[in-house]
Amino acid sequence: MAYFPMFVSLERKPCLIVGGGRVAARKCRGLLAFGAEVTMVAERFTEETEGAASGRLQRIQRSFQETDLTMQSWAVVIGATNSRSVNHTVAVYCQKAGIPVNIADCQEECSFFFPAYCTEGWITAGVSTSGRSPA
Question: How do residues 13-22 score in pLDDT, each as one tens digit?
Answer without folding.
Answer: 999 999 999 9
